[in-house]
């Protein structure tokens, strides 16, 4: 297999995870940059990755760039990478604002550079099985979907609303992406949230919780709960009800995915043993680049999930329902 130089920007939690899994792919050589010199040096020796002295040098060296920085630094670095002619994968959410999303899609299209988003939930076996079951009509016409994602209050930049966008942009964006992927275009978002305190305060003085109702063009409705007020640890759930059955998933249960139909059939599957979703994500992205095919989760997909999250933030602050921006196929990087 031909060699591929992959440059990782940001050597924190996600940079580490991407590096661990990219290293397993034959022919991949890794480089990294992080302004935190100590962290970069540790990362380089721990992961066997070549460290670079600036983002510019890393981008020049790399054939593919993987942006794993805090959310407010996604757009500027990815724009530099695309303008340098490098296919680029961005961690979710695609960007911090709608204007940044639009600029990214515009530049990817102008340069014809592949732009992908790391909406990793699509690569989790239970979520991809639930998506396939709904698409194949297993539960009839999907009608009402209830999703939840939460965990404890994070530290650092995550707690700074201006940088991360809080639970709606940081957590619920996973559900928003899965919902658009599964149900199609969303026509209305209504969100209620409570948010106080920031990363400078103690955990006890902070809150971030949201509940969002979504209406889809196909008539289905969904509600998404996102919370950083669960010291019990990370948990995600899904319940999809259709005219012919229901699908249930709870990440805290062992027999995770359960499909029951009106015909009386019931299937419970333990989490299927398969490759790690982060491995599946990075290998699918790099394989698409190697083979000159569209990347599996595009910048447009990421922009649409981000647009839902931003519409939910707007609704939560105004108390009014919002029609989210939808980026159509004309925004795909290969579109003429
Ligand atoms: N898909 C998931 O499951 C998942 C989980 C957590 C975080 N994320 C996303 O991944 C991104 C990174 O989150 P994280 O948890 O790794 O954060 P982190 O704080 O652990 O790491 C971010 C790193 O980026 C570095 N950085 C800052 N500015 C930089 C720059 N200009 N160039 C290069 N590096 C820079 C920081 O020094 C830090 O080391 C965020 O967008 C977050 O939303 C995704």
Protein described:
The protein is of the alpha/beta class. It has 2 domains: 4-119 and 277-297, NAD(P)-binding Rossmann-like Domain (Rossmann fold), CATH 3.40.50; 121-269, Dihydrodipicolinate Reductase, domain 2, CATH 3.30.360. It is 35% helix and 26% strand. The protein contains 11 helices and 14 strands. The chain has helices at 13-22, 37-47, 55-61, 74-83, 98-111, 125-135, 161-164, 166-170, 172-183, 277-291, 299-318; strands at residues 4-9, 28-33, 50-51, 64-67, 88-91, 115-118, 142-150, 186-196, 207-216, 221-227, 235-242, 245-250, 257-261, 266-269. The protein has an 8-stranded mixed β-sheet with strand order 8-9-10-7-11-12-13-14. A 6-stranded parallel β-sheet has the order 3-2-1-4-5-6, with helices on both faces. It is globular. It starts with a strand and ends in an 18-residue tail after the last helix. 46% of the residues are buried. The model has no long low-confidence stretch (mean pLDDT 94). The chain binds nicotinamide-adenine-dinucleotide.
């Amino acid at each position: 297999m031909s060699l591929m130089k992959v440059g990782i920007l940001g050597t924190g939690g996600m940079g580490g995870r991407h590096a661990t899994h990219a290293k397993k792919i034959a022919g991949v050589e890794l480089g990294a940059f992080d302004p935190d010199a100590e962290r970069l040096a540790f990362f380089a020796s721990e992961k066997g990755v070549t460290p670079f002295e600036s983002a510019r040098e890393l981008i020049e060296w790399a054939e593919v760039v993987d942006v794993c920085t805090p959310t407010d630094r996604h757009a500027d670095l990815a724009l530099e990478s695309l303008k340098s002619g490098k296919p680029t994968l961005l961690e979710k959410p695609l960007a911090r604002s709608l204007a940044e999303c639009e600029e990214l899609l515009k530049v990817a299209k102008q340069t014809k550079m592949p732009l992908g988003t790391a909406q990793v939930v699509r690569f989790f076996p239970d979520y991809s099985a639930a998506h396939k079951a709904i698409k194949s009509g297993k539960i009839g016409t999907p009608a009402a979907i209830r999703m939840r994602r939460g965990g404890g209050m994070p530290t650092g930049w995550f707690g700074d609303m201006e940088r991360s966008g809080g639970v709606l942009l940081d957590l619920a964006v996973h559900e928003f992406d899965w919902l658009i992927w599964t149900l199609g275009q969303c026509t209305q978002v209504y969100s209620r949230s409570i948010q106080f305190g920031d990363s400078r305060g103690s955990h006890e003085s902070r809150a971030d919780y949201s509940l969002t109702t979504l209406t889809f063009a196909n008539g289905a409705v969904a509600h998404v709960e996102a919370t950083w007020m669960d010291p019990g640890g990370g948990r995600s759930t899904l319940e999809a009800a259709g005219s012919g059955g229901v699908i249930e998933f709870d990440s805290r249960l062992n027999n995770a995915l359960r499909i029951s139909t009106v015909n009386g059939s019931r299937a419970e599957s333990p989490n299927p043993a398969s490759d790690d979703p982060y491995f599946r994500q990075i290998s699918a992205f790099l394989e698409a680049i190697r083979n000159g095919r569209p990347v599996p989760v595009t910048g447009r997909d990421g922009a649409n999930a981000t647009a839902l999250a931003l519409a939910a933030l707007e609704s939560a602050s105004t108390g009014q329902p919002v029609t989210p921006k939808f980026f159509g196929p004309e925004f795909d990087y290969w579109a003429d």
